[in-house]
Fold these 3 entries.
Entry 1:
Amino acid sequence: MKNQLLLTLSLLFSVLGLNAQYSPDILPGYEQMTIQMKPDYEGEVYCTLIRKPQPEPVNKAVLYIHGYNDYFFQSALGDSIQRYGYNFYALDLRKYGRSIRDHQQPTFCKSLDEYYADIDTALALIKKEGNDHIVLLAHSTGGLITPLYMDSRKNDAVESLILNSPFLDMNMSWFMEKVAIPTVSFLARFFPDWIVEKTGFSSYAESLLAEHKGEWTFNTLWKRPEGYPKKAAWLRAIHQGHKKVKKGLSLTCPVLVLSSDKSFTETAAWQEEYRNADIVLDVNDIQTLGLKLGTNVVRDTVANGMHDLILSAEPYRTIVYDKISHWLHN
């Protein structure tokens, strides 16, 4: 009953945004639509749908959902999806990227299901635009949110999931994962605004940014190299999501779980291994817990892939695109 009520409310907010118009996006060749959602505990809330449609109408689409401390900037991904014959969409979730507003703490949530209305809205718009076959492609924290969303909503509009290094567990010590995080998660019910981590290392961002050691350019106000302060309520939201995954989800749609073939511990000092490994998550956790998502899960790894596999160095990111293309066409 509760899920039906949430779905009804979300679809109502979707309908309110259906008459909005697209405008040119910050990425050349892309369009965006800003959608006002129901206000939350911080005030007005928005999400942003970005698209790159096919020149000729088709009825299939990929919707990309970004990770934590992230937003959609990977235009090469959208360009590739379009070449595969799909309409491409991306969603900047509330309080991320294009959707951030001055009165909000970027990336903050108290529960991961706050994002479900954003996804409902995006899917309603994508379907309204003539897409009957939709694939969700999600990275990192987006790769945690989307399976939980699908398990909750039982949404048959989505044909399959592609998860790019999904955030299915913490990459921390036994004490942190088994003692410290559950304790903070419990205390978050009483002290939700308690800042449990101010900032992190910037090594991952440096491995990506062209001005440092990488190949890419992005807005460092929206994707901060050192990250955003993390509050106890956010950590509790992630912890609750991880507990659901470990208990097991009941997805029946096909799920592709992709990760690098190895992890490497991130530190403050630069190391060349950062270019060829996941320095954010434990790939063994990803591959093991990926089986908990449903009954039709395919797991695969990419040698020398980075955390965001599509930002890996060549020739490894071409391998990622080949795997995505094969999935979409089979």
Entry 2:
Amino acid sequence: MGDRVAVMKDGVLQQVDVPRKLYDSPVNAFVAGFIGSPAMNLLEGTITADGVLIGSIVFPVPRDLQQAAGTGTVTIGLRPEALEIAGDGAGIPVVVNLVEELGAEAYVYAQLAEHAGGAALTATPDLIVRVDPHSAPTSGAKIELHVKANSMLLFDSESGARITGS
């Protein structure tokens, strides 16, 4: 058994590295979405002065990433564990579609509140969040999410290449 993994797409090598590096530092959105279960949340938005605008919600982005991205559209990458339930009224509003309880952890499948009841941004619900099963919300609940510090990845929407800060 090897200790390195090669990720290919349509016969083209995307990245070769140890599993942890592929998970934490994918070179592009394809690798980010391919590695990990459940897959990374990938949401497309527009760079603004305050962060990345998705619908009418601004996701705060670290200044160095925002500057490196420039202007235009980007894809935000958030692992399920990069999000946490917030209770302060200043988070990202979502509506819970489903809670999958798996014993030691639970996954909350939710849509951005402004998209609730309509089509999701992706084939799956807008966001998947890993939570403590003892404090998991119920289906239909309206909750708010925070993005944990230093856990957001940005990708160029056209090329899929990862955008890194200084």
Entry 3:
Amino acid sequence: MKKFKMRKFKKAAAAVLALTVSAGCLAGCGKDDGTNSLPATGMGEESGEPSSKGGGNGTINVYAFTDEVPKMIDKFIETHPDFGYDVNYTIIATTDGAYQPALDQALAAGGADAPDIYCAEAAFVLKYTQGDAASYAAPYADLGIDIESELSDAEIAQYSVDIGTNPQGEVVGLGYQATGGCFIYRRSIAKEVFGTDEPSEISQVIGGGQGSWDKFFEAAETLKENGYGIISGDGDLWHAVENSSDKGWIVDGKLFIDPKREAFFDLSMELKNNGYHNDTQDWQDAWFADMKGEGAKGILGFFGPAWLINYTMAPNCGGTKAGEGTYGDWAVCDSPVGFFWGGTWLLANKDSDKKEAVGEIIDWITLDSSESGLQYAWANGTEDWDNDPSTPTAKDAVGSGKVMSSSDGSLDFLGGQNMFDYFVPANTYANGKNLTQYDEVINQYWRDAVRTYTSGEKSKEEAIEAFKQNVKDNLDVVVE
């Protein structure tokens, strides 16, 4: 769901991938409410011709849900002229649940058309690394990757490793993007209400790093007294709550409601009853309006990773330079709790007969921390993925902490702040052990249940019972 600007592909069958929601709902960011923005295509496979020309050693099949990873592989082939393989891409959007069934069928069928490389986003990645489809994934070590050494050298965040580790303790998937979350706030509002816009000071104001929401709600009351809201809607808080929980939705095969997640009922009601937000829903027009400063009342900030800044907030801030809309009026500070939101993991088929070549691609995308690797170019915004100087790559938080620590993450959108100063530690605070393969569906049931409570349709007890019934009726999960 996210990043590179759309470009025309080589065959008419691939046409042009068009955004259907917003620039922020782009693929790899892994928006975890189950709705992504790109329509299904069959680039490469349906055209009957490989999408990237590399040579005569054979064809590597890639399954993805946007053109992000294909563009990365295109760049790998361009910068490795001796690679010697053609690459065939099949891109099927996650919209309407189309991607996973197609991928599952292709993996089960095997043969020459089976994917050698495939992508999974945070909402469903556990299915492919630890769940029902984990048996298809090849350990990175089997791809010729010195996994332990490279993980250490690149300083890959532990949450990403945990998510990509199979039940046998082998790494079978890694993300190329870092999605640890911070609080992204309006400088002008912070300065007016709290007398400063300095990130270290605002971190203290909202209880950054304290593991508690107490200071955050104190700040919300102060903002209310001055005519502002602290966040746009309860969804902004949910992503921080969800991924800061100690356990996931399923424990020993049974539905489990972590106390930190259950507390979201009360946190959401407190936000609404006290008028601490504009009561918007994420990914809706009113949410985007708050990024422009055009909502019912001014909003201090949003919780999110770097991709939220680059691919959602910046395109929806009402301007492209300082003085236009809210562009340049933002900064990043610590979240009260550690969390991550989204991401895309790369996996390889254990039955691929091109493991070494597949390993070269995956290593370059996820682990190579040298200045010639994808991570360095992406973190510094020095790679032109579209070969179009007029559309430069945005600087982004990448999987390698080593790369970010040695890179310039300053953004004009953030008033010149180096965002890596906060996103590097944010990635270390994130917990990767609270996901399940059912998160995409269960999260939606939970969010819906909370809305029925805060709207007054149901009591808290009734809403939770309805949530449990939804899980029981629709998923292969024991509900007590």
